[in-house]
Structures are given as C-alpha cells and as structure tokens.
Amino acid sequence: MTPFDLLSLTFLLLLAWFWFDSSGAREAGVRSAREACESEALQLLDDTVSFASLKLQRNDDGQLALRRVYKFEFSDTGNNRRRGSVVLLGKRVVVVNIGLRLVTADVTLH
C-alpha cells in the first residue's frame, strides 16, 4: 500500500465518521427542537432543522469538541414563521433558543 493510498483511506474514514457523527447530532437537534416547541405549545414547522454553523470549541472538561448550530422554524399562532436555533457541543445539546415571547400584562410599577 502506497502512502497516497493510506492517506486516501484515512481521509475517507474521517469523512465517513464525520457524516455519521453529524447525522446523529442533527437527529438530537430535531428532537430538542420538537421537545422545546411542544413544551411551549408551539408548532415546529417542516419537522426538521437546517445546518447553520460548525466550529471547534472547548467543552467543560477543556477538550476540543465540535460546536454545531442548527436553525429551525416554528409558529406560535399557526399563521406565521419564527426562527429558533439549537446549539450542540459534541453530542450534548447546550442551548435551545425559541426567542422571547411577547406577554401582554396589565402591570403598574408604582
């Protein structure tokens, strides 16, 4: 086996690992977005997330891990589309953002 063959095989194995790892992370993102929407009585639109960014970041143990951000859309009224995001560090979901919801209240501060 030549060095080029060995390098090519290593590259293909890394690519396969990255694809497999990314598909698992994406599924975790979909699951987290769905759970967040259900807990807030929101409708997850298209029942999916889309890839937004990827970078290296240190986790709580100081080890480098892949930080993935996925975007999704949801509706709070059924007639609109709002954006949310899911951030994963490695295989762990660290943030699910569905934005601030407007709450009307009759409150006086005096």
Describe the fold and architecture.
The protein has 110 residues and is an alpha+beta fold. The chain has one domain. The protein has one helix at 3-39, and strands at residues 43-44, 50-58, 64-75, 82-89, 92-97. Strands 1, 2, 3, 4 and 5 form a five-stranded antiparallel beta sheet that branches. β3 (64-75) and β4 (82-89) form a beta hairpin. The longest helix has 37 residues, at 3-39. It is elongated and about 60 Å long. The mean pLDDT is 90.
Rounded mean pLDDT is: 90
Overall 3D shape: elongated
- How much helix, percentage-wise, in residues? 25-40%
Radius of gyration: 19 Å
Please work out how many helical segments DSSP would assign: 1
**What order do the helices and strands follow?**
HEEEEE
The fraction of residues assigned to DSSP E strands is 25-35%
Number of domains: 1
Q: Mind summarizing the main beta sheet?
A: 5 strands, antiparallel
Parts with pLDDT < 50 across at least 5 consecutive residues: none
Number of DSSP strand runs: 5
Distance between the termini: 81 Å
Indicate the structural class.
Answer: alpha+beta
